[in-house]
Amino acid sequence: MFSELKKSGLQHINLSNSLKVTTLLAAIGMFGFAPSSAQAQADCISRGDLDMMYCDEDGDLVADAPAADQLVNPDTLVFAYTPVEDPAVYADIWSPFIDHLAEVTGKDVHFFAVQSNSAEVEAMRSGRLHVAGFSTGPTPFAVNLAGAVPFALMGNDEGNFGYTLQLYTRVDSGINELADLKGRRVAHTSPTSNSGNLAPRALFPGLGIVPDTDYEVVYSGSHDQSMLGVVAGDYEAAPVASEVVERMAQRDLYDPAEVKIIYETARFPTTSFNYAHNLDPALVEKIKEAFFTFDMKGTALGEEFKGVSKFVPINYKDNWSVIRDIQAANGVKYTPDNLK
User: If phi over 0 gives left and psi between -120 and 50 gives alpha, with beta otherwise, what is residue 196?
Assistant: First the structure.
């Protein structure tokens, strides 16, 4: 059973007994994009980019809640954080918040570590994932394919949030500016990543350098792998998310003295936290309460994500506008194939 679960892209993480992560298939099922259901009302007059399963009559660009008889209020909430290099480490980091979420909602809460953006989106679409953090670039895919509703980001006491695209190279690479990337081998993370792929493709041409034309693009699979590949000399440069490489440096995964930044953007929104659109509204309010009353200071979560102290409220229509513009400039269509 566990081998089948791993094939789906979700990995079971053993936490404390209080998290009760013991039943695998019963908790999350097997994943796959489900066909359109009764939620896809023939008389829906406004969908935008949303899948046929969903409707957006109020124009906020996220899926409307379904009819009352289609709302869900599970005894067990399944929570996932965006794919990371070391899932076991992040299971421990998220443990204090998971306990808080369980206490506020009165639900059992399972933490599962996803191994791909596609698996995470599929899990929410199929109804097996209820609350999740989606990376910046994949967030619009989660919204449009899985009915995810972004409502929070990590921020500081002033309510500020975000990260930058940083272009790294080794200090001894001979690369000192964007023009020096011509003829080089550069790691992008994955096709749907904002800072790791889409933003460079949208922004670099205006600065005189065109990915795939002026330099060779090699997909590394993650920001962690891009950075480690630059340090090891496997890649000559890599655009990455500042927040990821900062955490890597905090864990001594690379020596900052060996690399340098040759380009950096203004700030983008970071990982969005979402609830499934079909959750009972009363449960949604409890989930929001858990997020917005959690104090990260002094917790493993606060130690891992330096510079943030709490979750701050956001909405997809406004806060993801720049990301949607970047994706539109890249011709991105929100389909399962493009997510993969």
Answer: alpha
Give the Cα separation of 323 and 194 in Å (integer): 7
Give, in order, the Cα–Cα distances in Å from 108 to each of 23, 98, 284.
Answer: 12, 9, 15
Q: How many alpha carbons lie under 13 Å from residue 177 in its C-beta half-sphere?
A: 3
* pLDDT digits 0-9 by tens, 23-57: 333 333 333 444 444 445 557 989 999 999 999 99
Task: Report how far Cα 328 is from the mean position of its chain's Cα atoms.
Answer: 19
CATH number at residue 183: 3.40.190.10
- Distance between CA atoms of 195 and 147, rounded to whole angstroms? 23
Sequence-distant (≥ 6) Cβ neighbours of residue 204 within 8 angstroms: 178, 210, 211
Give me the number of domains the chain comprises: 2
The pLDDT, as a whole number, for residue 41 is 53
| CA-based nearest residue to 264, from 247, 297, 239 | 239
| Residues 136, 134: Cα–Cα separation, whole Å | 7
Q: How far apart are the C-alpha atoms of 177 and 54, rounded to whole Å?
A: 45
Amino acid letter for position 150: P
Domain-terminating residue out of 223, 241, 264? 264
DSSP character at residue 187? E
Q: Are 275 and 230 members of one domain?
A: no
Look at residues 42, 9, 44, 5 and name the one whose alpha carbon lies nearest to residue 27.
5
Paired strand residues for 132 = 80, 274
Q: State how beta strands 165-170 and 238-241 pair.
A: antiparallel
Write the pLDDT tens digit of every residue in 52-101.
999 999 999 999 999 999 999 999 999 999 987 777 788 899 999 999 99
The C-alpha R_g of the chain, in whole angstroms, comes to 20
For tokens 């929070």, name the residue: 152
- CA 235, chain centre distance (Å): 24
Strand partners, 241: 165
Per-residue pLDDT, averaged over 271-282, amounts to: 98
Q: How many residues does this entry show for the chain?
A: 340
- How far is 81 from 271, CA to CA, in rounded Å? 9
